[in-house]
Amino acid sequence: MEHQPYENWILSGDPLSPSQKSDLMDHISTCSHCASIYEGIAGVEDLLKCATFESPSPGFTQRFQMMAARRKEEARRLQSYLFLGWMMLVTVVISMGYLTTLLLIQSPAEVVSNIMASTINMAFQLDSLLQLVKTWMQIIPLPITLAIIAGSAGLVVLLTSGWIFSIWKISAQGVKTNE
Ligand SMILES: [Zn+2]
Fold it and tell me: H/E/C letters for each residue in 31-95?
């Protein structure tokens, strides 16, 4: 089938005379090749009309800024995770290095006995701490001890809530300045 001049008419996008237009419609109704081109061009034109000539909705700028703020927050969180991971890595490397050094200058049996000795030592220290607490309990009457414990617990709660409140305030301010 001869597709010219219909193909050129569709692709050029030039305005057609009424007789040309009816010729084109007649051809399209019988020719699937030109019909698919025609529909494709019409679809692209529709798409361009919808996509580019619409102004952004009023909330768009605000949404975009909120998205940017959220992304910044995520970046900050990622950074702290990276820092934590880095610290853990450093800790592992240092302890590995420490163990390797110990193994180089001492035999494995000595290292194990050293570790056991320090563990036992720690247990003894914990025990003496418990003894100290016991002695304290014997010397200082229970009500005073309870009062001291309650007082320090209250202080801890007060400090913690103050800290949480200030963190919340700072983060609220941060969100406000990001808007
Ligand atoms: Zn055709």
Answer: CHHHHHHHHHHHHHHHHHHHHHCCCCCCCHHHHHHHHHHHHHHHHHHHHHHHHHHHHHHHHHHHH
Residue predicted with more confidence, 170 or 10: 10
- Ligand 1 centroid distance, CA of 18 (Å): 19
CB 25 within 8 A of CB 52: no
Ion ligand 1 contact residues with beta carbon within 5 A: 3, 31, 33-34
Classify residue 156 as left (phi > 0), alpha (psi -120 to 50) or beta: alpha
Residue 17 has pLDDT above 80, yes or no: yes
Helix (H) or strand (E) segment spanning residue 140? none
Q: Is 0.70 surpassed by the pTM of this model? A: no
Q: Is the dihedral of CA 96, 101, 104, 109 positive or negative?
A: negative
CA of 16 to the centre of ligand 1 (A): 17
Neighbours of 6 (CB within 10 A): 23
51 C-alpha vs ligand 1 centroid, how far in Å? 30
Between the CA of 33 and the centroid of ligand 1 the distance, in Å, is 5
